[in-house]
UniProtKB/TrEMBL annotation:
This is RanBP2-type domain-containing protein. It is a multi-pass membrane protein. Pfam families: Rhomboid (PF01694), Zn_ribbon_RanBP (PF00641). One of its GO terms (biological process) is proteolysis. SUPFAM superfamilies: Ran binding protein zinc finger-like, Rhomboid-like. It comes from Vicia faba (Broad bean). PROSITE patterns: ZF_RANBP2_1, ZF_RANBP2_2. Residues 276-306 form the RanBP2-type domain.
Length: 334
């Protein structure tokens, strides 16, 4: 994400982007359609060919500006600004990064889940940028640099994708020649870019990293196949937190006495106790340690094999061995 430093239009680097994209896409075993569509959309919006100009708003209508978005409730700026870029180098750098991250994530997640993940990360990163810029204004009267800043670009989403991609990695990676643990690569890139690349939006990149961390936290807390569901349930849970806090503090809910015992709070405690009894389990396909509340592996999607199923498999195995031993005795024991 870059701030408004003036737009210089040049087409010199676009053929290199097209060549690199075609080469990497051709070499990929599975051709990820969502990644290709995102790169094509960003490139077409930047080029703005004549037949699409009536449909594509100009960049002056799209700049991400916290003050204008909150003042006018401008959802167009909120959702479309990541797909606009200022210069060739801005577009090429982001699209090459999107190609590398998108191929890996889409191949591991599947196209539908990857598309949902990108949408979630985009909404989270833009929302966090608004919250941070407004907070700096309200609590620190820090208005000039962030609250009225104009910026565009896909890099906030890319930082979030980098956090998701490297969240389970124990390897090291090189960030501009500096060797760092992969899971901290986004933080190292954030500060190195801010020091050596002029005109970038620090708040936009920071919000991308925080969006990736929030997304991973929601995925750990909620099971299911649709990441957007995690976001919505997490947001609803956040809104209900003050009510739960007051409920626990003052005990508004009273247990109702019936002929068979109490109903209400005691029942909730029983459910909480049964949830605590759930133990973690290790995926047989990728050896990832999952929460006992999940029925499918969070990393690779493999279904959990229950203990009863494992016992049934072992029982069938031993029955077949006994049958084989009996047949051998009948054949060779005479």
């Amino acid at each position: 994400m870059e701030s408004n430093t003036g737009r210089g239009i040049s087409r010199g680097m676009l053929p290199l982007l097209a060549l690199h994209t075609f080469t990497e896409y051709y070499r990929s075993d599975s051709k990820p359609p969502v990644t290709a569509a995102l790169i094509a959309a960003n490139t077409l919006i930047y080029l703005r060919p004549n037949f699409l100009r009536p449909l594509i708003p100009s960049i002056d209508q799209i700049w991400f500006n916290p003050h204008l978005i909150l003042k006018n409730k401008d959802l167009q700026r909120f959702f479309l600004s990541p797909f606009y870029h200022i210069t060739d180098s801005h577009l090429v750098y982001n699209m090459v990064s999107l190609l590398w991250k998108g191929i890996q994530l889409e191949n591991s997640m599947g196209s539908l889940e990857f598309a949902s993940t990108v949408a979630s990360l985009l909404a989270l990163s833009q929302s966090i940028t608004l919250i941070l810029s407004k907070s700096l204004l309200v609590f620190f009267d820090y208005e000039r640099s962030y609250y009225n800043e104009y910026s565009v670009g896909f890099s906030g989403v890319l930082f979030a994708m980098k956090v998701v991609l490297n969240s389970q990695s124990d390897n090291y990676t090189s960030v501009y020649g500096v060797l760092v643990p992969s899971r901290y690569a986004a933080w190292a890139e954030l500060f190195l870019i801010q020091m050596f690349v002029p005109g970038v939006s620090f708040l936009g990149h920071l919000s991308g990293i925080l969006a990736g961390l929030v997304y991973l936290r929601l995925r750990r807390n909620y099971s299911g196949s649709n990441p957007l569901g995690f976001v919505f349930r997490g947001f609803t849970s956040l809104l209900k937190w003050p009510v739960r806090f007051l409920d626990n503090l003052f005990g508004f809910r009273r247990g109702r006495i019936t002929g068979r015992g109490t109903v209400g709070r005691a029942r909730r405690n029983v459910n909480a106790g049964s949830a605590r009894q759930a133990v973690d389990w290790r995926c047989q396909a990728c050896t990832y340690d999952n929460s006992g509340l999940l029925s499918v592996c969070e990393m690779c999607g493999t279904s959990r094999v229950s203990s009863s199923t494992q016992q049934g498999l072992r029982r069938d195995y031993y029955d077949s061995m006994d049958e084989l031993r009996r047949r051998r005795i009948e054949r060779f024991g005479r």
